[in-house]
Amino acid sequence: EENLEAEGLELELEDKSRMEHREPMAWVADDAENEEMSCSSLWCFDSENPFMYDKELIPDDSLYFSSTSNKNYNNEFHVVEKESFLTSAQRSRIVWEVLMRTPYETDSGSKTGIMRLLNNGIYLSGYPLHDGPYIGKSVKKGEPGYCERTLLYNEWAQWKCWYKTQPLPLIRRYFGEKTALYFVWIGFYTTVLIPAAALGVLTMIYGLATMKTSTPSKEICDDTVGGNLIMCPLCNQQCGFWRLKDSCVFSMVVHLFDNPATVGFAVFMSLWATMFMELWKRKQARTAWEWNLSSAEHSLEMIRPEYEAKVFTYKFNPVTMTFEPFLPFWDKVARILGVNSLVLLMLFSVMIAVFAVIVYRIIIVTLMFSSETLFWRKYAKIATSFTAATINLVVIVVMDRIYRKLAGKLSDIERPRTQREYEDSFTFKMFVFTFINTYSSIIYIAFFKGRFFGHPGDTITIFGYRQDQCENGGCLFEVFVQLGIIMVGKQVFNNIYEFATMKIMIWWRVYWRARENFVPQQPNTRWEEDYNLETTDSMSLFDEYLEMVIQFGFVTLFVGSFPLAPLFALLNNVVEIRLDAYKYVAQLRRPLTYRVQNIGAWQAILKGLSFVAVITNSFMIAYTSDFIPRLVYMYRYSKDGSLEGYINNTMSYFDTADFTNTTKPNNMMLDGVYVNQCRYQDYRHPPGSDEKYTLSLQYWHIFAARLAFVVVFEHLVMFITSLLSYAIPDIPRSVQGDNSK
Amino acid sequence: EENLEAEGLELELEDKSRMEHREPMAWVADDAENEEMSCSSLWCFDSENPFMYDKELIPDDSLYFSSTSNKNYNNEFHVVEKESFLTSAQRSRIVWEVLMRTPYETDSGSKTGIMRLLNNGIYLSGYPLHDGPYIGKSVKKGEPGYCERTLLYNEWAQWKCWYKTQPLPLIRRYFGEKTALYFVWIGFYTTVLIPAAALGVLTMIYGLATMKTSTPSKEICDDTVGGNLIMCPLCNQQCGFWRLKDSCVFSMVVHLFDNPATVGFAVFMSLWATMFMELWKRKQARTAWEWNLSSAEHSLEMIRPEYEAKVFTYKFNPVTMTFEPFLPFWDKVARILGVNSLVLLMLFSVMIAVFAVIVYRIIIVTLMFSSETLFWRKYAKIATSFTAATINLVVIVVMDRIYRKLAGKLSDIERPRTQREYEDSFTFKMFVFTFINTYSSIIYIAFFKGRFFGHPGDTITIFGYRQDQCENGGCLFEVFVQLGIIMVGKQVFNNIYEFATMKIMIWWRVYWRARENFVPQQPNTRWEEDYNLETTDSMSLFDEYLEMVIQFGFVTLFVGSFPLAPLFALLNNVVEIRLDAYKYVAQLRRPLTYRVQNIGAWQAILKGLSFVAVITNSFMIAYTSDFIPRLVYMYRYSKDGSLEGYINNTMSYFDTADFTNTTKPNNMMLDGVYVNQCRYQDYRHPPGSDEKYTLSLQYWHIFAARLAFVVVFEHLVMFITSLLSYAIPDIPRSVQGDNSK
């Protein structure tokens, strides 16, 4: 019976590893350091050569020392010899290393490692065991029934702990450094989000408070000033003329995100992103020092079994004097090119999806504007924004799922040599795709929408419809809607999906196994319990990081148009921490522990994002918001330096006689009066001028001012951020001092 | 007699270290591994406790292993045991470490290290010896009379070797890794300069070839088109009107640096700088791998003796359980602030010097323009440029010398804890100062000169003189003169100065010692010979790096106006390599060897420079050159898309009746005719217009175009450079593979 064998093996292992540690540690749950396997072959007993353990475990004293020096900083220097021990995470790592190196054929010794056996399907799976059920009463260390998993569940993974600091030393002890570092990171990120969220809320409150009193909205809503201006139709033929006061409500909403406070907030967030990176480097250095991670993990540098199995060209290695698998240069290049062109194809399909939504937008807006009902006309833009954003959200979520499946396969085709190469390639592919997938619709609205629109009477069309154009007051409102729906929607959906699928999968597995075995109800062994849980692998933190990095993008890239982004991120993360904690404690098999010094490629990606954020924010303020035109108006065109008359100033005149046949509205009347002249938002010469409908001097003024703002903003922020990163040392002074020992 | 003692000590040491190596190495010169000291106290013999060597040298097997693994890559794996040896550089390092740690009081053992003895003046100095005179015949390894120094001199340090590859393994063996890495770097930099220099020359040739045919110069020189235009006076009162053709020669010279080719070259150089950094990282990684430098040198992290001697506040260190010197936080802050305000003061004095030269410029130009002689009027600008640049050069060189003396003292006042802290602080101070000192006059000319000039009747003055203004055709020519003189002048001066002072100092010391000792002519011992040479310390490479980094700045920052910069840099470096080589082989005491992994802070500084270069180049093309105005003219204002009529288009009209009393020229006649209207280079409304002398629409067009160019150029180049740095892995594939062993 294979199960019995497996359990026999387990006992064997237990004795051996006990011998190595040489000191009884009563408080450690019995099976914490054991690997467990479901054997499907009869010779699995031979394969575990008991001799191997002594040979492999004894030279492992580096780990032993790392444990003692870890104690050092607790000032327990003098008792090190007596109290020294390995954490359960370290023990599981040791056992795994042993399994990795144990030969499974007694004669040759060349075929080693559990990885091959797992890949060949001889073993079903191998994983460290949890140290007990997670539901239970917290018991103090040293007392009988002490179970770290229960402790973690009670003190960390429950909702009621949402405001508590995470028990990081325990997490590290139980799950190992790599997993713990993720929780350090998300905890740190969430903390740093608090001031950003607070300032974001203040910005929003400022917007709300000044909504009614802002001059542009007042002028739009006031019949005597701008409300009665007759506006040109917003689409060709079907749409009619309208009065500016129709967009009164809309203009007030727009003011929420388009006021001087949001500009200040965008500047703040650009600096915040840099500060975050700099402070994180310090935090990470301190954590690495406290956890004694300065000796890096080299297991990622080992040649992948897949590589050894599938590469059949060999090269002589002068160091080891053996022939090693080696992919010829051109083969490698061909594979990378092939895979990357597939990735480009996927990106292209994302673009098509975005374009489809643009077309949807244009059609719907046209339909709604041509409707007779005032209600539809009034809310046309808003309704379109919301529905289009929702469609985008669905597309994004679906594409993400599809691509996730694809990326792993594609990275395999590239034949990465080491696990690190694999992870780097996978990370890059996933990040680029998710980035484009998530942000492309927002980028389109923020920077391209309506930019190519000329003036009424223009005949440039897309599929016979007039180009997509933003409402009076810039595209900032649409960016806001798009961001809000995609960001909040994606997070909520992801959390629910994650939670639900996990539950269902576990239930399904329990149910299936129960049906298969027909074993009368008897208490399951620990390994059976754990086998029912979701699997973990070295990439299982990948999705968590990716989700957070994309969220970081929402928080920094377009924050000028969505000051509430940090708040939503903060709320999401409070939930996310506990959800991830619950997942790791209750729903996943215990992960193999890895020792890593830092968060790896994600750090470079975050740095890149905070760099791009400076660019997007400067362009958003300069181009998407009305900030610059208003400033230019106040300082050059206004009589008294105020914004009075701004709305009238932004509207150019159009002679309705200049409509072509295809653009002329079907209804040339408004309120029963024939319209001779209408207004549209742009800076162009009036119909009477020599150069009618060409861009006016004011346009060039504003254009120059926008560009000057971008140049000044970017250089200033970059200068400040370089100063910051120079002034804040990456390694805290205290750590630096003690490292020199 | 102390000399005897010292030599006795030398013999003692020799025996001991020989014993350690255990294998006779006949081909190594006898005294290569010995430290030598001039004792000035009688108890120096006791201090060298022979017991210490065994204790200290035996655990040094890491060095031993590094030597064997170094052999590995030569495929001599199987003979490692027999052939293993330490290079002379490694042996001198070992001996130094021993000296550093040997206690000099036999009872307590707490007072250790030669550093304290040197600082107290008990020893005069301590240094590794050269292995023989440098002049001699090259002898093959293994033959009698083999001397690495002679070999280096003959094969590397002589002028006739200027085209040869440097014998880097030998340099490393003789001088150690830190010095060798400098030569690797300068060699690499010089090689990479070749394509840049070639392209720069081509750019210059293009300029020369098109000089006569370029439309703007042709129009300026042609009487029928632009030559006869009456130009407004270039200064107030004294200057008279002049005809545009007077600046004909000048406009042709300007064309040399202000043509489309230089724009292309500036783009190329921005990318070149990035490529240089990326390729250098690879080269460095490869070198570190070949030289087995992956285990970093920690000697820089040791607490400086100065710190221990001068800091009297102590803190308890929980790790070592001892009280250690520790500077309180506020004391540290006060020191840093104090020192940095002094640095700011120095920078301020640099600014004053630059300003003084500006005033000089204005006065001279005014004087020359008011001269009656046509010759002076014609060459006024050029002559002023040359003399002003020369004055700037002198100021720069003098300030450099003064500041160099100051910076070391200032860094000492800051009380850096470790040698690394000291070096970082010193490097930063020196670099910032040298940067500002060298480039500020160029930056002024390139970006500020003449920007605040209004139009001829303006009354804004500096000390009663009209503002500094560039000649028709932009300030690019003046930047060229300034750059050329400062760059070439500084390099030539530095090389001569270095060479000459070194020679004189050595001669002086030999002469002085000869007079002092009155010893009859007898052959000097090796250590006496070496004592006469210049001293070396851990900072002796600093000046070399600084010089090269400032040169890198010349090559990249303003290359748009001086395409020959890479060529001059290349020529200089070819000389520099051999000069430095000669210095190290013949004029300096043999330096202590250090093992370093990389070029340290210089890498970050170079990266920063190549970043700044993108910004300066984009602004220089956009603002300083005439590139953008010409493009705008061609695409918007020209009738046939050519540059014809450009010169006339750039000149605004001025009504001479609008001169104020202070600005009106004394002579209102030109060639006997009263001048009613004159022209000046700017885009302003003509006198007849409503808004006379205010900036015209074309000005705003060009202004917007300039800014747009900056934005597009910077983002494009940054995007390409990030792509490049992503695509080029920092560590070559082959090295990566073999590191995983």
Properties at a glance:
homodimer; 741 residues; mainly alpha; two-stranded antiparallel sheet; 27 helices; elongated; disordered N terminus
Describe the structure.
- In chain A, a hairpin with a 4-residue loop joins strand 5 and strand 6.
- Chain A is mostly helical.
- In chain A, 61% of the residues lie in helices and 6% in strands.
- The two termini of chain A are 55 Å apart.
- Among the domains of chain A are: 2-129, no CATH class; 175-214 and 259-293 and 302-365 and 375-408 and 419-464 and 474-513 and 526-625, no CATH class.
- Chain A is elongated and about 90 Å long.
- In chain A, the strands form 6 sheets. Chain A has a two-stranded antiparallel ribbon. In chain A, strands 3-4 form a two-stranded antiparallel ribbon. A two-stranded antiparallel sheet of chain A has the order 5-6.
- The interface between A and B is medium-sized, with 34 and 34 residues.
